[in-house]
Amino acid sequence: MSIAPGHLALQDVSFTIGGRSLVRNVSLTVAPGEMIGVIGPNGAGKSSLLRTIYRTNRPSAGRVTVNGEDVWQRPATWVARHVGAVLQDMPADFPLTVRDVVAMGRSAHKRLLEADSAHDHALIEAAIELLQLRPLETRAFRTLSGGERQRTLVARALVQQPAVLVLDEPTNHLDIHHQLQLLRFVRSLGITVVAALHDLNLAAMFCDRIAILHKGEMVATGTPEAVLTEANLASIFRIEATLARNPRTNTIWVMPA
């Protein structure tokens, strides 16, 4: 059976390291073009789970498939062509410019030392424009602010032309203007997105569905309205909150007491 590009499935995924279970029996299917927000308290296992998708944390049990292919049975170059990732803590102490970092996104599509083609250049230029990096393109990556680095890494991921985009706290270091701008942009791409988010209202505003992780387990999945309930907020996030509708977006709005 043919599976559409961008289909992602986690089947009973667990991850244990040093005898400590960080993720336990998580199953999640993401349809092509769907944006899923993964939320949960600190230490819930969000980053550990996302790392199983882009081949950093090998699952102790279970499978992760993209387009029906097990990412841990395919070469790393195959995964790099199909899965893009923007991580929380990317090393920055290297002598590369912003343009160099963005261009790195094409490496999975090229042979070693192969020169950039006209197609590569076009993709790099488009990503630099879309992420408003033109004034920064000759700057050393290590000299950028946290928000500027984040936009550069998103541009690099886009240049990969992935079917699945994994974002681990993509709004870290960004002011509210750039948070909204980035998530609107990601949402407009029409590709499959899995994003770990701390801001519940941003998750509700931009995600088709939300998955809650708690102590390494998936405890709720569904639409923002179904998942962001007073009971879940109290039991999982340990807050009392009033729920309303955002008058501008008509999305669920969490107002902590």
Automatic annotation (TrEMBL):
Molecular function (Gene Ontology), one example: ATP hydrolysis activity
Keyword rRNA-binding: no
SMART domains attached to this UniProt entry: AAA
CDD domains in UniProt: ABC_Iron-Siderophores_B12_Hemin
InterPro entries, alphabetized: AAA+_ATPase, ABC_transporter-like_ATP-bd, P-loop_NTPase
Keywords: ATP-binding, Nucleotide-binding, Transport
Family: Belongs to the ABC transporter superfamily.
Protein known as: ABC transporter ATP-binding protein
